Amino acid sequence: xxxxxxxxxxxxxxxxxxxxxxxxxxxxxxxxxxxxxxxxxxxxxxxxxxxxxxxxxxxxxxxxxxxxxxxxxxxxxxxxxxxxxxxxxxxxxxxxxxxxxxxxxxxxxxxxxxxxxxxxxxxxxxxxxxxxxxxxxxxxxxxxxxxxxxxxxxxxxxxxxxxxxxxxxxxxxxxxxxxxxxxxxxxxxxxxxxxxxxxxxxxxxxxxxxxxxxxxxxxxxxxxxxxxxxxxxxxxxxxxxxxxxxxxxxxxxxxxxxxxxxxxxxxxxxxxxxxxxxxxxxxxxxxxxxxxxxxxxxxxxxxxxxxxxxxxxxxxxxxxxxxxxxxxxx
Length: 330
What we know:
Number of helices: 8
Strand order of the largest sheet: 14-13-12-15-16
Keywords: ATP-binding, Nucleotide-binding
GO cellular component, one term: cytoplasm
CATH superfamily of the largest domain: ATP-grasp fold, B domain
Pfam family, one: RimK
Distance between the termini: 13 Å
Domain ATP-grasp: 102-297
Number of domains: 2
Protein name: ATP-grasp domain-containing protein
Radius of gyration: 21 Å
CATH class of the largest domain: Alpha Beta
């Protein structure tokens, strides 16, 4: 079996783990960067290889590659290519915006903090005049490791937030990088809690999780900080995480949840696509990379077997469906 591992940036630890498990499972995992793709006529090519020659696609990350993800979505539909995550074949990458996520979860009846979405920083300042503080403010387009999530305890924190965002623009300018445009803010009610749960689901099923204790309250909420506790997850935490992933069509998800200390109810804080799993594996001793690849293999198997049958018919050469193929025989 040959799987395309679509990614935007190279996270060495994650890619290394996936490659290790791919070798152990006997599958060929081919890293494909979006910027290495090209469209020629009605084909999408990676080098000289047609992307439809893969048995399935695993989108490890999408990020800002909205154009390529849409082109690949159309190509996958045309050629019935199985892919993970499923949401990329329906709503597409725009579902990744936190405003869209909050809308879908609320409509589906999943408990989600009271929220508001505003377009500009000026609108944000006006909106917060009517809110009880503290609140959480998120950049709707997101940011890795909590860089797009901010803790606002009082209105004066907005000036600090403005300076942080301006500083990021200046840093990008000095580095000759694309200057970010900060627009689209999601305001989220703060749910009092004694720590948040991080739950990982694969194929909409919980494979494990842990609880992070309350960490120091800073303006930027870096989700990678805070002491973690290995625990048996409560059933309502697992069920809520599974439901949220299913509603959003995120087959591989890292979901943050909290239990309200006032009502005891479980709230979804965020559902993360393509979650990092270094801390998860360390805390739970669960092989997340293997779980993800095993899920991909099972999902892609029927397509792989169909392609192998076609190859046998065309060439008369039998091949094991899970073995790396010799594309010259195809």
